[in-house]
Every structure is written in C-alpha cells, then in structure tokens.
Design a protein that fits this description.
Four copies of one chain form a homotetramer. Chain A has 386 residues and is α/β, with parallel strands linked by helices. Chain A folds into two domains: 130 residues, Aspartate Aminotransferase, domain 1, CATH 3.90.1150; 244 residues, Aspartate Aminotransferase, domain 2 (3-Layer(aba) Sandwich). Chain A contains 14 helices and 15 strands. In chain A, the strands form four sheets. Chain A has a seven-stranded mixed sheet, sandwiched between helices. In chain A, a hairpin with a 6-residue loop joins strand 14 and strand 15. In chain A, helix 12 packs across helix 13. Chain A starts with 5 loop residues before the first strand and ends with a helix. Chains A and D meet through helix 1 of A and helix 1 of D.
C-alpha cells in the first residue's frame, strides 16, 4: 500500500518541507558548539511558545516520557492530588497518580463533556488538603478541551501546584503559562506545532522544582529524571544523555515557522479550521462528539458514529479508497476524528477531510449530504480568508 | 561558528545522505499501514544486525532509555549480579544495579584495560550465586572492548543471564547474539550503524522475558517498560506510545545500507580504519590509551595525552582551527578520541583525524612527527584497499 | 505570500518526496563512475517510458531546448513540412519551421478542437511532397490531444518523418514510440512524470539521425546540437557539456516510481483523474473547453470561462484565498485549467481543484453548483477506487 | 562502485547540505507568486556576486548555454574580435567567433601561461579595428587565470566591448564587473559558488544590449536568445520558457551562504586553500603546471605529471583506492587537478586531496615525499586559521 495522499491524523501530523529539511540536516556531535547553540536557542523558542520565563526542559522521547517523568518527580508519597477526568488520557493520569503513591481525588465527567471551573472550585473549597491539580488541556482521543485559563489561576491563587498535560493543547488554544500561573506543562512537538514526534517539551516553575527537590521519590540518575536535566544541563552544561540532534533541528525549524507566523495567528488558524470542519460536518448531517462547541477542540473534530458503523472500518476505508489517513477513536468511543493540526490546519485541508469522511460514510451505507457539507465548509472558508 | 568540515566524534556520528533522506522523509501517522509495515520491517533488520531470532524492541529515546529500562526489568530485588567494570559506563551500570536492589559483585580493572574471560570464569567458579552478568562490550569513552565472544557462551553454559551494553559495539566488532547465547543486548543507532540518535535497539531472549515477567519490580505502564512493548506491540499490535516516525525512517535507511554492504564487511571496514588510525598515531609518536591492541576498540581510537595538555583544549582547538570535531575524554582520562564509526570508518577519514590531531598537538607545543604519521597511515591504507 | 497549500498547475507540477530527495542528493562530479552509471541507467528508463529501442538523448534545459534543437537538426532547407495546429504550441512550431527554412504546410483548427487523422490523410494524399509531419500530442495550454496512435503509423507507412512534441503527452496518454513508428519525440520531465523541470527527454530513430547527418544546417558544436550528443556522448562517452547531476538524480527517482507503478497504470491513473474532474466540472455547471471528451487531455482539464470573468483573476483568487495554485489560459483562450499530472493525478486532488475553482467562481459572482459538482466527482471516484 | 568519500573535482563540486535542501525543496509552479519573488531575489543576489548594477539573466542550462547564447548575440557578421587563448576554453571560443561570422584575431600562449595585459595593449594599439575582446578569466581545465582587472578597464577605456567567460572565475578571484567596465560576463553556479550545475549566470551592460539589438544575427525566439529574456522576462514579466524551479532554489541557497560569508571572504578562502595546496604539492616534490604562482588559479591546482604516468589513470586510481574524486586534464595536458572550490575550498580538504594524489602517485611508482608535503600544507594552514 502506497503512502496516503493526505495525512489528517491526530498526530504525528504532516509537517512542512522546511521542518523535514531540518530533520534531514546533517547530524552534528551533541557537544559541537553549533549544536550546543542550537539546543539553547530551541529551548528559548519553546519558552516563547509556552509564553513563560520558567525553565524549559527538552526530554528525548515521545511526550509521554515528559508526562511520566514530571509526574513521578512531583508526586510525593501521601500527597493529595485532584485529577480532572474527561477522556482517556486524564483517566490514565489518575492510575499513575495512585500508583506513584499519592492520595487520588477525581472529578470525572463523560468523555464528550468537560470538567468545569465551577466543579473544580467547589471541590477545592471542600477539600483544602489538595496540594496539586492535574488536568489534560486537550483530550486528543475525543477532541475536547478543559478551561485552563480559568482553572490555572484558580489553583495558583490557592497555592496549589498544577500539572498540565498540554500535549495537543499548546498552539491549538491560547496558552499563557506565566499569566495563568501554570507550574508544570508538558507538550508534544508532533501536534499543533507540526514538529517531529520524538521530543517532550516541558516548562517547570520554581515552585515545581522546589517540590521535586523535596521529593525523595523523584527520579534521579534516570532517563525519567527532570532533576538530572536541571542539574547537569541547566546547571553544568552537560547533557544527562545524548539528545537527538535530528529532532532538535526539526523542532527548531517548526518553532521558527510558528514564531514567524505569530503564536496568536497560529492559534487563530487552528480555531478557524475547526470552525470550518464543524460547519461542514453539521451541514453534512453528522453529529459532533463534543456536547457543545465551547468544549470542542480546535485541533481535532470528533464525529460521533452510529452504532452499526465501526470507527476503525471508517478509518481504514478512507485510507484505502480515498488516500486520506484519518484517526479513529482509539478507545475514547465510537467516533472518528478529522484533524486540523500544524500545516493541515487551514485552507482546503478541512474540505479534503470532510470529503473523505462523507464519501466513506456514504459508501458504508449511511445517509450523508456530502454536497451540502462541502458547500457549507467552503462558504465559511470564503468569509474567513478574504 | 560555522558547521565543522568533518565530524569524527564518538557519536552521534556523521551519517550518509541516504540516511538523512530517510530522516527527512514525510511523517506518516504511526498507525498508517505504511508505517506499521516500516516498523515491522525495521525490527527484522535490527534482528539481522544482531544475528538473532530473539524479540526485537525499538524503544523511542537515546540508547540509555533501553539500558535503564532493561536493567530495571531484569533486576529482581536480592538478585546476585556480577558487573564487569573497565570504563565509565560499566561503572555507572554498577551504581544502577545496587540502586535497583540487587547484590552487586564487581570485577574492576583500569580504564585502559579489559576484564578478561579468565577473570570472569574464576569469579563465577567462586560465586555460584551469580544469576546475571552485566558488561559493556565497547567502552566508547575510553575505546576498549570486552571479549563478549568468550564471556557470553561461558554464562550461557552456566545458565547465567547476560545483560550487554553494546551501544557502540554492534557493527564495530563481530556480534553473534544467538550463537553466543546473549540474553539482553542494547545498541544505539548513532554509532557504528551511522543512524539517528533517538532510538534504542534491544534484543530480548525468552529467558530474559521470563525473568522480567517474574520480577515484581519490572516497570509496567511506564516509558521504561519492556513488558509494555512485549504485550502491547508484539502482542496486540498497539504501540505503548507514539514512536518517532522520522527515527524509524532514518534507522531503516541506515540498516539497509549496512545489510547491502554486508554485516561482516561493515565490521571489517571498522577494523581496517582502526588499524590505519593506530598505525598513524604510533608513527606520529603518540601513545595509544589502550594497554594493548587486542583490547583497542575498532570504533574509536583513544590517544593518551601528556599531563600538561588538557584534552578539552585539544578538542576545541581541532574544531576551531581545523574544522574537525573530535571527542575528548569525558571523564575517562586525559585522552582524546579519533573516531571511525559509520560512514567515517574507512578511507581518508582516518588521515583527516590524524592530521587535525597531529597539527593541533604541534600547535599546543607537543613534539609530533606529523609527516611520518600520515605516511604510515596512508601506507597501510594503500595495502588494504587494493 | 506563503507557499500554496496545493500546486495543481500545468507544470512544473508537485513532485513526490522521493523525487525531491533525488534532487537534493549529493552532487557528484559528472565523470564520477557512479554518475556515469546513473546517467546511463536513466537513459534506459526514459527509453522504457517511451517504449522504444531508439537512442535516447537527455538534453540539459527545459523541454523546449530539445524541441528547438531537434527541429533545427531535422529541418533541411527547402524541405516540405506539414504542421498540425490546434493550439499555441503547434502554432509556434509553424513559425520555427518557416524560420528554419522549410516550406510550411499547415492544417489548423480551433484551439478547442483537434486535427483528425482523416484530415491528415487527405492532406498527405494531396501533397506527396511532404517529407515530415510535425504535431503536438498534448496541447497543455488548452488541454486537447492529437491522435498520435493513428497519425504516427500513417506517416511511417508513407515513409514520412515524424517530429512529435509530447512534452505533456507521455504518461498522460498511451505512448508506443516504436509500435507507432515515431521518429523524434520530445518530452518534459516536469509534467505527467512528476520530475524536475530542467531536462528534455528525446527519442531519435535511425531515420531521424540520417536526416540530421545529411542536413548541412543541423547544429553542431552548439548547445542545440543533437549530433554532438550522438557523437560525443553516445559515441565516445564524453559529455558535450556538463549535465545537471541534480536533475538526473531527480529524474531517475521519478522514473523509478513510474516504472514501479507500471506505465499503463500511470496512464490509467491520469485518465481516471481527468474523468473525475470533468464529471465534477460538468455537474457544477461549468463548460469544458474541449469540444468533445475524446479530445480532452488527461493531464489538464480546461474550463471555458464567461467573457466577463478574466482567467488570470480566477487563478490569482484561488491562489490567494484558497491556497491552490491553478493555471490560467496563457494565451490559449479565456479558460482556466485544473491540472492532474504526476502525483496530483488521482484521489482527492481533483476535489481540491474543483472546490477551489468552484468557490472562486462563486466568489466572483458566477452561479456554480459547488455541492453537486463535488458530489459527482466523489461519486465517480468511489466507483473507480474500489 | 559506491559514492566517493570526497569529491574534489573541477565542477560540479560538492555543495553544502543547505544548498542541497534548496535543491530538494518543493517545486512550485513557475508563475506562483512565491516563485516569481524567488526568481527576482535570486537575480539580485547574482548581481551582488558580480558586483554590478547591470541586467542579470539566468538562463536554464549549463553555463555553456549562456556562453554560446551571449556570443551569438554579440557577434555581428564582419565584426573584428580579439580572442585571448591560453587554454582549451579560450581556443574553443575562437572557433565559435570565426564560425559565427566575425573576423578573428588571436593572441595565443602556451596552456601553462597567461596572455598578459601588455600583450593585449600592444595588439589593440596595432589593431584599432578591434570591436570586442573575448577572454576566459579562469581556464578550469589547466588552472590558470587571466588578468581581467587590467584588461577589462583597458578595453572599456578604448570603447571596446568585453565578453568574459568567468564560469569558474567569479568568487575564485576578485570580481568587479562595474568597476572594471565588463560588458558581458557568464558564470556557472557549480564552481566556486558551490551551487547547482544547471544554470548560467549572465550580466549584460547596456552597451552589450545595444550591440545585440543592432545585430541581425542575434538569436530571437530561441533557447539561445538573450533578447528573449530581456524583452519577455525583464520587460513583461513572462518567462521565455519554464525555468527550473529546483535550480533557482538551490542557487539562491548557495548565494545566501556566499553573501552571508561575504564576497571578499569567499575569495580569500579560495586563495588560502590554493596556497595550502600549492605549498603541499611543492613540498611533496610535485611540479605545478602553471608557469608562475601569479597565474595559478585559486579554484584548481594543476599538477604536471611525468610522461609515463597517464593523468586518467591517476584520477581513476585515487577514486577507486582512496575514495577521492579528482579531475584529470581533459585535453589540456598531462596534468591532474586538485580542486578547491565552494565548500571544499578551505580547511583539511586540501590535505585530503594531497594525500590521495601523493599516495596514488607513490602507488604508481613515482617518488613522492608525502609526509613532507602534508606537513607543509598543515604548517601553512596552521598560520592561516588562527
């Protein structure tokens, strides 16, 4: 089977030729002065993306290495932790929290819904013992978002630590790490940034460092250790292990493009693409997965499928017959996802996704008004771009 | 400071244009059928490189993620482990072994020497309680090797598990995982293979899996877990986390080139390059770090420096004045390393390294017979290549 | 202005990542044995594409260097030449023929029509003095084709030389150089092949060589000389001038992909894409430029525009507002072209082109049934791909 | 046979990864606004390289297409032209001049010598009928240069037109088109610039345009026509034929690097590399081809071989046994060329070339003091770089 014509998946996403050129540029020794400069510049650019002056750690590995390393570093045995669950990643965070020895508190809602700031506020009022709040800003598997802009400052004001999984959040929503007082954020490069899939982007506040240093269970001399990076790299200029020179080159190229376009413009582009996709899907007669548009993610649009149509079959059919790689639900529910992340957020990419999905569903026997859907998407696009 | 003209470092190493093209090729979704096929093919090719039918695990991250994950998986609390120490990586393995809860036994020699099979045999005879032997096949920081071909079968015949750090060993020396009965081997792609720096290549025998599964301390639901890969990926075809599509493309390209050249030919090329480099260095009046040629690595040639010349200064001077990136000792001793790994193992690359080092040492006031050294290297090269 | 999201232009066309990797691969000396082998292999693959055993000449420059060089080589002063005119390139050929000293005969039809084999037969019957027939197999600017399969053998059987501009013809229609007895064919790499824009691909029969050698006006010691290539390169292995190593690498990569897919499959893919595009355009209420589907090209679909809509405005609007680069008429008439060549021939690329064009025309005030058009295109695509 | 380890040939030369990335970047339509901007920017940068405000024409094809096109445009039948001959390219220019209908005057010296400004002055004094002087600034096949800085102004002051083949001259020597009053200069991208091999870079003064426009024999409506470019592209913004988008991208990348380094710095780097190479060759006991260092080119160093050693054998041996692609004499004499152009001008590249050549000559039975030669080269390099 040949390469797909279009990859509109939930990440890793299609990246630009310039980012690919970064990934394919010559590999230098990691202590070459040129690479040391590249690594430091790239850290700074990640900080700009996060809108923070906090320390930036770039761990080598998929974003989850950062999520695990950071959580292990923060979770002090016996700590009271409130975890917000509205999707599969939030659910998984809860298992880790308990496993790492904390007292787990959870607010859980349906995977098509979002935990509200009011629910959090109420819980925190009733549980003054909470020391940390964990949340997933953007639940990629189901396409819903959490209101970090409200919950973040609420925790900061109460002196509660925040641990934020924003793997697909940053650039897919406004993100103000310092303004919102977020202590520890972990993002992936292979989502809205349109970067390579092998690096975890982490911002760490001084408060978070203090908790880690005081935590006897925090990993040290380990691949999962954030403290190693703080002490060896930030402190002494020695890498705790060899970073991927290629990933750094690809990452910097992706960051350069985002910064040249402007952080706000990138976020707006994702929001516009999501609006076009939702408009098209609704006009096609499809049902959006998210309970309301307010909580629908700007990076993926999840479509609820009828029970008799298997989401994996939809994905495979669109790939095989129309050459478009979509993402199915991966356990979040009987849904299929039209992604609009990175370079595919904008323009006719939404039309491509809608056409592939609409025609696939028609092929599978569902009644879909493809023409109306594509017209609606194009009509909205026409107003956006001029 | 511009890019160096030549990167002759101890890894990450210069890679070929074909490998770079792999790294820079379009990024597919990790569940795209094309990528699933790529991942499985690449596993098979790593198995060919290791000369094994054992399971192959490709963990996302620098090789050390595989070393740590595998050791944590194998080390059962209270287990008796013999660790062979002849360099900084072996020394570090010992710290981990103790830290992870085993009873640590060690044979340690100077970092310019190698633990001999006879020493191991004697120790094992005297300590029947040993359940696992850990060794570093190739100590990259100092450029010495361990006799795995002798020690591996010795352990296998006694029913003792083997854990082998062969990060820079595979392709830099003959490697027969199955013939020698090696249970767990971890290699890096960014050394003799000339691949990307972000992936750990691991072979696991059934015996090693049995030990892990029986080990309550083995990581599960963790980035460090080999069991996750066994159950989810090898078992169910689901990735425990997103692998780096780019790294896999680069890795497969590097493996294709090695397999097309022939595994034995690649090893022979490294050995020939090392011989040329040693001949040149000796004729130049330099002192090899390794006590004997038998234990000198084929992937890096370490040169012992006089006390009054700082190895970091040598490295920086060669980079700045001659545009050649060498590696210094990184804690292993006052040495500098001429590397010949991957695409730079062979031909005039050794002459480039020798010229840069010789002229640098002369610039720093040392008496070096540069002409004699380069002539000797070229004379040997002349006999090899025709 | 940023890069367009989609290039659906009439050539140079979007090329695959594999072809780009070829173009970006290291530059060797043109007498490096590796490059000599590449050049010779590539010649052979061009011959396979042309389906010929004739000599293949690869001239460095846009296809027109081959068209001019070949025509100057063949046109012997006083020669009687019949030129078929159904578009701007055919018209231009006529100017050259006269300018180069031949007696020009022409059959000319409207640029939305095609000269028929019957017209040619009648003319040849009436003019036995004709020594050469010149035709353009595929008029890219207007999107019509000529029936080479009928006219070629007709000329061969009468002993009349044929000079064929097939710049965008080969791979966009069945092509049997030897079976049809075509003497001199010139193709471009940047059209249906999806290759680089800097090389002219030429097949030359022995009969054509005989004419050139007998022609005192044939260029020699000139960039335009085919005889130089025959004598120096094919005869002595010396290049008459330095070929572009990069273009050859890109060309071979493109040829490899076409040959792996299969020549017939590539042609069928172009025909299928054209059928989808035409079905969509008609259902949208647009008027095809070509008088009949039989003479409509499989590489570009030309749409006739109302007089009050300027084709250049359409092109610019689609590019600026929808990020799709289409081609306008370039002098052939008030038309716009949806191209489906190379990698963009197939799948949803036609839907992208139709969506951009349909919405653009709506934006410009034309009444267009976008939904019906896209539905019709998708419905046909659905039957093709399963 | 695999790729060579090092390409130190006389062009096409090794180019940087950044230039390769340019060549391999996505292909846009030639009328895409982005590409139009690229083309115009690149023209401007070529003008900076030439240090001129004259018109810049970028013809698609190897540099010789520019040489031929320009000469055909300038040579008016009956014109008196003085041609300076000191190598094979100058000799060839003379054949063209006569062939194109001019009255040919020549000053010819041995191919290891240079025509002096005094000889030119004397000839011009004696022949007031001369209307144009033609010269080759850098004879690549033999590695000698002509004193353009003296001859150019001498012609300008007498109102004589100048036609300069500077294919390997620009960036390999100081170049002041406007200051020296040079009317028509043709350079190649694949020499000292380290660019792609498929484009001719031409500067044209108003006086040269006037001559062309007045010349009835100047090519028009032809691939060789400069007037077409002037009228269509410079005048109307229409390309006379499709330029190679890939070559332009590669060319701009190469120009950017040269301009970032600084034109004077690039020239100085070539001169320094040539000095190192000559010092090494002499100390090795080899004989330089050029009669004096003053006329030795900074882009290639030609070494005179003994009669019993065939220069083609030397080239093939160095390539096969040492993996270094050198250039042989190509008809200029029994010489071999060590090139130092573009990215290989500088650093240890000269040592690589000298080592390969020295050891090759030793292998072929010649007495060579390799060690002394490499030491001398390194000693000079040591003084240059600090």
């Amino acid at each position: 089977m040949a390469h797909p014509d279009f990859t509109l998946s939930a990440g890793p996403v299609t990246v630009t030729a310039r980012t690919l050129a970064g990934l394919g540029s010559p590999i230098l020794y990691h202590y070459d002065p040129e690479f040391l400069a590249t690594f430091r510049r790239t850290q700074g650019k990640v900080g700009q993306m996060f809108q923070t002056d906090n320390d930036i750690i770039l761990m080598q590995g998929e974003a989850i290495v950062g999520l695990e390393g950071a959580l292990r570093s923060l979770i002090t045995p016996g700590m009271h932790v409130l975890n917000l669950v509205q999707g599969v990643f939030g659910k998984g965070t809860g298992y880790w929290i308990a496993d790492f020895g904390a007292v787990l508190h959870e607010i859980e809602v349906g995977y098509d819904d979002a935990v509200s700031p009011a629910q959090v506020e109420e819980y925190l009022d009733a549980h003054p013992e909470i020391q940390m709040v964990c949340l997933v800003a953007s639940e990629t598997p189901s396409g819903t978002v959490t209101d970090v802009a409200a919950i973040g400052p609420m925790c900061r004001d109460r002196g509660i630590l925040t641990y934020i999984d924003t793997v697909s959040g940053v650039l897919g929503m406004p993100w103000k790490t310092d303004e919102w007082g977020l202590d520890l954020c972990v993002a992936g490069a292979q989502k809205c940034l349109g970067g390579p899939p092998g690096v975890a982007l982490i911002s760490v506040s001084q408060k978070a460092w203090d908790v880690m240093y005081a935590n006897p269970a925090a990993p040290r001399d380990s691949y999962l250790s954030l403290i190693d990076w703080k002490e060896k790299w930030l402190g002494e200029g020695r890498f705790p292990y060899t970073p991927s020179v290629s990933d750094m080159n690809g990452l910097e190229a992706a960051l350069d493009q985002a910064l040249e376009e402007g952080i706000d413009a990138v976020v707006a582009r994702h929001e516009a693409a999501a609006a076009v996709t939702r408009a098209g899907a609704r006009a096609m007669g499809l049902e959006l997965w998210a309970k309301s548009e307010e909580i629908a993610s700007a990076c993926v649009t999840s479509i609820r499928l009828p029970d008799d149509i298997d989401n994996a079959v939809v994905r495979d059919h669109a790939r095989e017959v129309y050459g478009v790689m979509l993402s199915h639900g991966q356990g979040a529910g009987n849904l299929v996802r039209l992604s609009h992340m990175g370079p595919t957020a904008g323009g006719l990419h939404s039309v491509v996704g809608l056409a592939a999905l609409g025609r696939t569903l028609a092929d599978l026997g569902m009644s879909v008004d493809i023409g109306a859907g594509l017209e609606a998407a194009l009509a909205l696009l026409s107003t956006q771009r001029r």
